[in-house]
Design a protein that fits this description.
binds D-mannose; 8-stranded parallel beta barrel
Amino acid sequence: MNLTKTLRWFGDNDAITLTDIRQTGATGIVTALHHIPNGEVWSVEEILKIKSNIETNGLSWEVVESLPVTEEIKKASHLREAHITNYKQSIKNLAACGIKTICYNFMPVLDWARTNLQYAIENGAEAMYFSTNQFTTFDIFILKRPNAELSYTVKQIEKAKELFDTMTEEEKERLGYNIIVKTQSFIDGAIKEGERNYLNVFNNLLSEYDDIDKNKLRENFSYFLNEVIPVCEEYGVNMAVHPDDPPFPLLGLPRIMSSEEDFEWLSKACPSLNNGITFCSGSLGARKDNKLSELFKKYAERVHFLHLRSTKILDNGDFFETEHLDESVDMVGLMKVIIEELKRRKKTGRLDFNIPMRPDHGHKILDDFKRKANPGYPLLGRLKGLAELAGLERGIRDFV
Ligand code: DNO
């Protein structure tokens, strides 16, 4: 009874190989069929190719991250039925191949958001940072989203204008590119690498949510869950929704999984335990009223996958990804309640008492500066996080 240690791998295009991952202490892989366009079926044949590659390297495919829920499903467009039918087929095909945990999200348009992907921390490492002022500047003055000003206070707008006026053309370009393309393309987000007209395309995608508020988004999410969860029950698959990152509204879009209230809604919208959660301490921790250990305890039976990292919130509301065991987050307390849940599962006869865990993101450290990696996914920074978290788990396990 222990956490299954995993790392995310982005397939054959990832400069970090399965052979590398094998040496980190991880036994499991978290990956997706990144070459299949969103909305299409993942065939058994394609799934097996990746699976056997992983297994040949002495690892096991523990979690799918992500089986993307298309914008068409989120918006309930005329393509929704066709995409849900395909989604169900992919679930069945994954189950036939023995892969039974699926991480996904229901965030409209933008998956996760950071403004600085190379924030230098004191010891020389690099982390990812979210600046409210930079994001406001991006929204109003770079993206020029129609009516964006309505989302901000007069003071925020003034500060953003001040910043905008000091930025070089290159800095403006980089900020927009990072938010819309660089952080989204490698995780199969709405905009692909190489899209030159990304500001316009992004604005168009956003405008499609003009008439979708939180209630409507919840209605669409509930519809999706009640279609796919019965299939999951039949095939023994667990769905694990990822929280919003960051867990507060952005770009005038509704948020769906940000707080305890959202978790409560989720568990009522579709009570089956196959309707579960990816408990991402880093995303949830970017909001002070999310008390991580309490939240985990309350919804523990639904947690099918763990993303562990720490977020440091600054006085002005900005946040950055700090070291995995940084004391700004009670990771020790969280690990304790996680282990209690593993023990509880074992005692009550549940078979899933080895929840898969990955150190979510990592700092860029040491030789990471010499090797290409997707933002947030350098090898050594994640290895350090994994080792620290594994040590913490081992140290606590015998005392709980
Ligand atoms: C970012 C990730 C997210 C996550 C998706 C799950 O690094 O944590 O992109 O994979 O939201 O669907």
